[in-house]
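Same chain as my last thread, 122 residues:
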Amino acid sequence: MTIDQTSVIDLVAFNPADAEFWLIVTDHMPWRDQDMEHLLLLQEKLNSYPSYIEAGQMAQDYPTSAERSIVIKLANAFPLSAEAEQFFRLAREKIRGAGHELRLRTFPNGHPVSRSSALRRE
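reply #2:
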């Protein structure tokens, strides 16, 4: 999946070490200064994840997720720009206010999904 597919959940994984379900947003695009289009795509994409949970679709697709913590993870191929870091902090607070958690992971090799092999899909 890509960040420009804003209505698609990129990846769902279960992390048995923490007993958490992860909803993962994969962002393969590099950050540039004042990259408003990228920020708008990320905002739209992130908005769809809590909606997936709150509408009950996640519980329907993954019944055991109702018993687990659900974490939205942003997996970036490139470090955030200063503007994107500010956006991320605001998004994290908004998502936290909705009862969920948002975490960030930047993968220095430029491929955010390649390291998800340690996760078990459920």
